[in-house]
Amino acid sequence: MTAALAAWPGTERVRQSYASLVEHYTALTFSYGRFPGLQQEVEAFLALLPVGPVLDLGCGAGRDAHLTAQSGRTAILADVTLELLSATAARLGIPRAVCGDAVALPFRDGCFAGVIASGVLLHLPKPYTRTALASVRRTLVPGGRALISMKHGGQDGWRTTEEFPAPRWFTYYEPDEFAEVCRAVGLGVTHLDMSTRKDWFTVTAERPRLESSG
Questions:
Q1: Alpha-carbon separation of residue 65 from 77, 99, 131, 138, 145 (angstroms)
Q2: How do residues 112-167 score in pLDDT, each as one tens digit?
Q3: What Cα–Cα distance (Å) separates residue 167 from each residue in 19, 78, 137?
Q4: Count of CB atoms situated within 10 Å of the CB of 132
Q5: pTM of this prediction?
Q6: Range 168-182 burial, b when 16+ CB lie within 10 A, else e
Q7: How far is CA 201 from CA 28, 60, 112, 125, 151, in A?
């Protein structure tokens, strides 16, 4: 088990950065065109899930939630940035939208067939990433899965880029290291894939169908 942590103070700085660039970030990330192979990864993930709703955690512009809804599944939007969440929910016409922190997801236990966390947990320092993964596990049904995109090969810290000039925190994991953190919180790693998208990798992790009561 992972001890609960209070919200990370740096999350407010990250939130403000996204709030300041809502329209720019939406234009930058809503299309799959800039992310080769990602649409196929999400489609393959959705096909593996049991029946039930799917949470787009850190939904941003809602690219993955939109694809989820198009597949016939119920999509739930969640993001810590209310300004971005509100704009995305209105644009996509998805009424189920919740503003909340990944460290303590405001959902009951076992309510999602799947969770998509694309490039969101990397905005937390490592102790908080672990707590967020435990929160993801808690909200999955037994046999439910999470698709998590992370980065490798960099130095942790605050970064700006030419495309996104406001500061965001980035935490980097080597793929095997991140897989071990998933296992430590009780998630079984079913796929670990190196992406063709520069320094990204994806992990598919499952909440076991049969779990120890001890």
A1: 7, 15, 23, 20, 15
A2: 999 999 999 999 999 999 999 999 999 999 999 999 999 999 999 999 999 999 99
A3: 12, 21, 29
A4: 27
A5: 0.94
A6: bbbbbbebeebbebb
A7: 20, 19, 23, 18, 6
How is residue 91 written in tokens?
Answer: 């644009």
Q: How many residues does the chain have?
A: 214
Q: At residue 176, what is the residue type?
A: D
**CATH T-level topology, domain 11-206:** Rossmann fold (3.40.50)
CA distances from residue 151 to 90, 102, 187, 195, 197 in whole angstroms, order as listed: 30, 18, 19, 10, 10
Q: Which structure tokens are listed for 84?
A: 């971005």
Instruction: Give me 175's structure tokens.
Output: 């793929």
Match 């967020």 to its residue by tokens: 132
Strand partners, 76: 55
